[in-house]
Specification:
Chain A is built from ten helices and no strands. Chain A is mainly alpha-helical. In chain A, helix 1 crosses helix 4, helix 4 packs across helix 6 and helix 5 packs across helix 6. At the A-B interface, helix 7, helix 8 and helix 10 of A face helix 7, helix 8 and helix 10 of B. Chain A binds a DNA duplex through helix 3.
DNA sequence: AGATTGAACAATCTGTTGATTATTCAGAAA
DNA sequence: TTTCTGAATAATCAACAGATTGTTCAATCT
């Protein structure tokens, strides 16, 4: 079995090189197979299809990113608002820059999100787990309140949808997106209803 | 000039019929022209092109909708939260049902939003004006607080993006969208930070 | 037996052709 | 002169053939 995983890994590495040099559409299964010194048919013992190789690559790099995002979400020396800020901004900047600078990455993102909608759902579920951790810790410290944290996390994602795959949904530049995210974050954290924290003193006669 | 406006109107009516019966792509300028008993070339004295006819139709019906939305936003017997709720939900339900029940309307919406991105911006600007009215009135009554109302309106739109053209961005059903909008609305109104309104009494010794 | 191949098959892409149709504009009608 | 026409033009679309390529599987190898 260790051998099998090794081969899987080899295939992923070969495909990663091809995809990033020539793009997803322009690499053939035959080429990937030759790079691994095997026949095209043999690839199918390790992956159901071409798209699944792409998905495996995406999963791998995404999981690395996720690790870092979790660190931001639970950074001990920052308050909840800062941590939420860091989390959302890191996500925005990271994906924006990746898709902006690398047309191959953009192609892969487009293909996967079109052909494998469940992949996007899986990513959202992962991030939601991080958000719930953040909310839990925030409530413990009395910084945020939220009865149903799972639901609240979902709503935060809903409200920040626009910033998750920026260039698939709008043509805004990064600075404009950052300005908007800043505003939405403020809205989410403070809300529209007046806070009475500013005047906790008695004011009635 | 009144005559010219009349002809414009006649063209719009003819196109409206064709578009809604056979779809935008399947109606030709020649057909619209014959319906108006004129030559195809003559249409271009009234509209720069086919898309502009579609845009004129969309503008017309949208402006009627807008009238009603404004009424909801300033309904005198409701509080700010309810008005914001009604406004956003009416928008969601209206566009969802229109696009869901009428494939022709869906086609037109798709074409216009792809080919005329400024049209969507114009719609957003209109709705933003209504939101600002709502926020102004809400602040007057002490229900909401927001320093920069224009900016806040923009952020509300940003956070509720997903519900504006529901079926262009997700495959969610109306009930699920409504549930999500309800949650996002709560988030926007209440925020995550604890409100001290629940205990306005003295609590320090 | 299980692993691997590579030819066969099916699905998709590419380029091309012909037709359809949006748009223009020289000239006719008013 | 101004308004309108309709043939000419250019852009887009539909359909098709041929080639390319993802996928399968009977046969081969280990």
């Amino acid at each position: 079995m260790a051998e099998k995983d090794n081969v899987r890994c080899q295939i992923i590495e070969a495909a990663k090189k091809r995809f990033s040099h020539f793009g997803y559409a322009k690499t053939t299964m035959a080429e990937v197979a030759t790079d691994c010194s095997m026949s095209p048919g043999n690839l199918y013992r390790f992956f159901p299809g071409k798209l699944d190789i792409a998905e495996a690559i995406a999963t791998e790099t995404y999981e690395r990113d996720l690790e870092y995002l979790r660190k931001l979400a639970v950074a001990p020396n920052k308050n909840a608002r800062e941590r939420l800020h860091d989390l959302l901004f890191e996500e925005l900047r990271r994906t924006y820059n990746k898709l902006e600078s690398d047309p191959r990455a953009f192609e892969m993102a487009t293909v996967i999100s079109r052909e494998r909608p469940t992949f996007a759902n899986w990513m959202l579920a992962n991030e939601r787990r991080i958000l719930v951790e953040l909310l839990d810790e925030a409530e413990r410290r009395g910084e945020f309140v939220a009865e149903d944290k799972e639901l609240t996390a979902e709503m935060i994602q809903s409200a920040t949808m626009k910033f998750r795959y920026p260039q698939l949904w709008s043509k805004l530049t990064l600075p404009k997106l950052e300005r908007e995210l800043e505003g939405v974050l403020k809205l989410i954290v403070d809300g529209l209803c007046p806070h009475h924290a500013q005047r906790p003193q008695v004011n009635a006669a």
